[in-house]
Design a protein that fits this description.
Strand content of chain A: 25-35%
Oligomer: heterodimer
Strand order of the largest sheet of chain A: 5-6-4-14-15-16-13-17
Helix content of chain A: 25-40%
Number of strands of chain A: 19
Shape of chain A: globular
Structural class of chain A: alpha/beta
Bound molecules: flavin-adenine dinucleotide, FE2/S2 (inorganic) cluster
Chain lengths: ~375, ~475
């Protein structure tokens, strides 16, 4: 006998992870998806599974989730392209080298082994970076995955019923309603609709943050680790204005995936040539030879951002039948598995591996933000 | 002159393409994602099966690059040297014409006759488009010509960005004529990825680019008027044509032939001696290719035929990617134009095959009308009449080239459909649509950007064409990092 009925709205990586976790916790799960599996931000994202150190809450979330990914890895199909390629945080100058040392200490204190690379070691690890960089920090445990296939795998493993092709227009009070007027009942509804979560649960403080990506033809070994400039943190954290940062990922296919840009409040899918050019010029500052690689496609995606950069995981205000799982911004692939785990823990009332409080949507209840955005 | 292929010196003639040289020397040009040996399929720069490393630059489309003395070529991906600096040029004209086939040439000629400045751009090393590929086509000296230059993006309104061996060029225009032609349609069948199986036009293009064909046994298969044209061409160059296998039924072929315009009948009669004695089998199509031959399905019976090459194409489909990226309205896979060849996008005209496959006469008429209109004048009655006549011919062409439903049964579950990414038919039948297939199997994600597998999936599975995202053709990263500006 199932413990109860759960409907997950959204079959992105977060919805898929929630469906999987709820099914494993003994619930009967239905997933409602308007477009296609992994068709939202999940199709657009980079799939870097990265442990972040901006705050204790961010660290706990990404660290736990990455461990879950590593446990899952052997079960993933080859097409999920899981690879333990590691991250190198690239330091351009002496000032950024100080940040490398701080990061090294921070990760070390929390049980994550990292290696400080000096200029020569960096050049050995990544011969296509330009000369004259100060060094970097190698985080060997970081990995990459191809998100849509991972989402499909999780959904299939969950055994959930999948209701595809019709958007949910309203949810709450134990019911989801479709555009056709049809409705489905459940004990609990998980709102994992990504950017659209705020429309289905009004008042969530979610803002759009558009990003551009470019992928090249196959050049196996050209880039070996996910390379991220330390300046990325400044870009990722700035709460206003457009920003770009050098971010290059070696896909297991041999392709190079290049990011990243961040634009608040822009939701149209068109490639903004000026933004793309700015992003690529930044990348070429670090890897000049990128300019000569063959680019086969460019695209955009929209991240669902929150005011404090942490996702919204847990009960929605005023409706005990709705759990929110959205607002993962640029880390939703990484943090999808822990999101599923937290949702399942809330559902069963069991203990979770990490404290859920920092991610509860209700943390914004007292602030201006919750209720005035949407 | 001498080039080096995988470390071995190879003697080649001047003017030979790298793809032809490598194919002749090695029998293949690259290894696929799964490690299969692959050779050129299209011969015209769209399938990306001919990618090799040239002088340390990996993933170069070798069919569009003439061999040069001393070139070092590798069939494996060799890691790129730091790029030489990438130039950034800027040119401007009243009218920019993309594509230097019959349509584009006629358009550019009409523009300069109208007293305006024209720039003519083509991806191929020489003008002439698909039909006059081998070059030698006269071009009015007042036309500014850019060959080996492919348009890849529109960085700003009124500007097209192109790439050539030296770098990138931005072309500013007041009016734009798209004359991007057509490509062959390929359908997957077991063995179609073997290096000795090419398109029909594909093999012809490769021979024009220097692939030796004398004495080789060739089976020409598929559908459409290109098949006898190619067979005649190959035979004139010394090939032994074993048979022409045309999927269409005889009665429809007869009906088509009996309604040909006089000029086409004349062409046919001129071609007839070149094909004397060559068996032409209707209702016949390739069931399977294998090393050393092909099995044809002839009126339901399987017939094994030994040959060196299979040249197989299923008529043509318009190249509409650039038009679609610019926002041109489409209908039934063709760009919609008005009487003046104008699209719905302001200042953008379209002529030739992208508006519907109709052959060289229609392409020339449409090109001349588009060029005249872009230069601000009205077309002559004669041109309008020519266009009218050949549009009727185009309709009959569509009819006679309609694919029979049995061709949908050609691929087996393990037959590769997406050659760039090695996605099999079995993987695709499990998917609901283009988008899901792309995300979950990588079908259509390769460098050809679904130019090969997209039309096959449309026919086999009824899927819609995948959306166009920049670049229109793969291009150096530099084509996107350079800022846009007008001359
Ligand atoms: C450019 C870019 C780079 C990124 N790089 C990384 C990275 O390297 N690492 C990382 O961890 N994260 C990265 N991310 C972030 C990551 O992609 C997202 O956080 C994550 O995909 C969010 O997943 P999701 O399931 O919440 O949302 P989505 O994937 O958007 O899924 C939501 C789903 O809900 C469906 N839906 C919406 N409305 C309805 C409705 N009304 N009814 C039914 N269904 C509905 C949508 O169709 C969609 O499928 C990146 C994002 C971008 C844009
Ligand atoms: C493979 C093939 C072989 C053919 N062989 C014959 C034959 O032997 N006899 C015959 O009568 N007809 C043949 N045809 C048909 C004939 O080509 C057409 O009827 C006629 O040439 C159409 O003229 P067009 O100007 O519309 O296109 P095309 O001749 O196809 O010219 C289009 C040109 O545009 C260029 N182009 C496309 N996109 C871009 C871009 N983004 N940037 C720069 N350049 C671009 C291409 O390189 C091409 O040169 C063949 C067609 C094909 C596809
Ligand atoms: S065949 Fe090139 S993308 Fe499918």
């Amino acid at each position: 006998m199932a413990k109860g009925v759960v409907i997950v709205v959204g079959a992105g990586i977060v919805g898929a992870a929630c469906a999987d976790a709820c099914a494993r916790a003994g619930y009967e799960v239905t997933v409602c998806e308007a477009a296609g599996i992994g068709g939202g931000a999940t199709a657009a994202g980079m799939g870097h599974l990265v442990v972040m150190d901006d705050s204790e809450a961010q660290f706990a979330l990404t660290d736990r989730s990455q461990r879950l990914w590593r446990t899952l890895a052997p079960k993933l199909p080859a097409a999920a392209e899981f690879a333990s390629s590691g991250t190198i945080w690239v330091a351009a100058d002496a000032e950024e080298m100080t940040a490398v040392e701080q990061k090294h200490a921070y990760y070390g204190e929390r049980g994550i082994e990292t290696t400080i690379l000096d200029a020569a070691a960096l050049a050995r690890e990544e011969p296509n970076l330009r000369g004259g960089l100060a060094g970097g920090l190698l985080v060997a445990s970081d990995c990459v995955v191809y998100p849509p296939v991972a989402a499909e795998f999780l959904l299939e493993r969950s055994g959930a019923t999948i209701k595809m092709g019709e958007p949910v227009v309203a949810l709450g009070q134990g019911e989801v309603r479709f555009r056709s007027g049809a409705a489905l009942q459940a004990d609990v509804i998980v709102n994992a609709a990504g950017m659209a979560a705020g429309r289905l649960t009004p008042g969530l403080p979610i803002r759009a943050r558009k990003g551009h990506l470019l992928i090249t033809d196959r050049y196996p070994g050209w880039v070996r680790h996910q390379l991220v400039e330390l300046g990325y943190l400044k870009s990722a954290h700035s709460q206003d204005g457009d920003s770009v940062a050098f971010n290059a990922q070696p896909r297991p296919t041999g392709q190079v995936l290049i990011g990243s840009s961040r634009q608040f409040g822009v939701t149209d899918a068109a490639v903004d040539r000026a933004m793309l050019a700015r992003m690529l010029r930044r990348a070429e500052q670090y890897m000049p030879a990128l300019a000569g690689l063959s680019a086969i496609r460019t695209w955009t995606g929209v991240r669902a951002a929150t005011p404090d950069g942490l996702p919204l995981i847990g009960p929605a205000r005023e409706d005990a039948t709705v759990l929110v799982a959205s607002g993962h911004e640029g880390l939703g692939i990484t943090t999808a598995l822990v999101t599923g785990e937290l949702i399942a823990a809330i559902l069963t009332g069991g203990a979770s591996a990490i404290p859920p409080e920092p991610y509860l949507p209700t943390r914004f209840q007292e602030t201006e933000a919750y209720g005035h955005h949407g | 002159m001498v080039i080096t292929v995988d470390g071995q010196p190879v003697e080649v003639q001047r003017g030979v393409s790298v793809a032809a040289a490598v194919s002749a020397a090695k029998g293949y040009t690259r290894r696929s994602v799964c490690g299969e040996a692959r050779g050129p399929l299209c011969g015209m720069g769209i399938c990306f099966e001919c990618r090799v490393t040239i002088d340390g630059h990996a993933q170069q489309r070798s069919c569009q690059i003439p061999a040069a003395a001393g070139m070092q070529i590798a069939t494996e991906v060799v890691i790129e040297r730091p790029a030489a600096s990438v130039g950034h040029g800027r040119r401007a004209a009243d009218v920019v014409v993309v594509g230097a086939g019959p349509a584009g040439l006629a358009a550019a000629t009409a523009v300069v006759r109208g007293g305006q400045r024209a720039i003519l751009i083509d991806d191929n090393p020489a003008v002439g488009g698909q039909i006059w590929r081998a070059g030698g086509v006269p071009v009015a000296p007042s036309i500014e010509l850019h060959c080996q230059t492919r348009v890849v993006d529109q960085p700003a309104p009124g500007v097209l960005r192109a790439e050539n061996p030296d770098g990138i060029i931005d072309f500013s225009y007041r009016k734009l004529v798209l004359a991007t032609g057509a490509r062959e349609r390929f359908l997957p069948f077991p063995g179609w990825t073997l290096p000795r199986v090419l398109g029909a036009g594909g093999l012809q293009a490769m021979v024009k680019a220097g692939l030796p064909i004398a004495g080789k046994r060739v089976v020409v298969a598929g559908t459409g008027p290109l098949l006898p044209l190619v067979a005649a061409y190959l035979r004139q160059h010394g090939a032994k044509i074993i048979a022409i296998a045309e999927q269409q039924q005889a009665p429809l072929l007869m009906k088509f032939l009996s309604a040909l315009p006089p000029k086409k009948i004349l062409e046919l009669m001129k071609m007839a001696p070149a094909l004397a004695g060559v068996p032409v089998w209707s209702s016949t199509w390739p069931a399977e290719a294998y090393a050393g031959g092909v099995t044809l399905n002839r009126w339901g019976k399987l017939k094994k035929i030994a040959c060196d090459y299979v040249a197989c194409g299923f008529h043509l489909i318009p190249n509409t990617e650039l038009a679609r990226m610019l926002g041109c309205a489409m209908q039934n896979g063709c760009v919609v134009v008005n009487e003046r060849q104008e699209t719905n996008v302001a200042d953008v005209y379209c002529a030739g095959e992208p508006t519907g496959v109709g052959g060289v006469e229609l392409a020339e008429a449409e090109g001349a009308i588009a060029g005249t209109a872009a230069a601000g004048q009205g077309p002559s009655k004669k041109l309008l009449k020519q266009r009218e006549r050949y549009r009727r011919f185009a309709d009959r062409l569509d009819e006679v080239c309609a694919l029979r439903p049995e061709l949908r049964d050609l691929p087996r579950a393990d037959t590769v459909v997406c050659r760039c990414e090695d996605v099999t038919y079995g993987q695709l039948t499990a998917q609901p649509d283009t988008r899901a297939a792309k995300l979950l199997t990588r079908c259509g994600m390769g460098p050809c950007q679904a130019r090969v597998c997209g039309p096959a999936c449309e026919f086999l599975l009824g899927w819609s064409a995948p959306a166009v995202r920049p670049p229109v053709f793969p291009a150096r990263v530099a084509a996107f990092s350079a800022s846009a500006s007008r001359e």
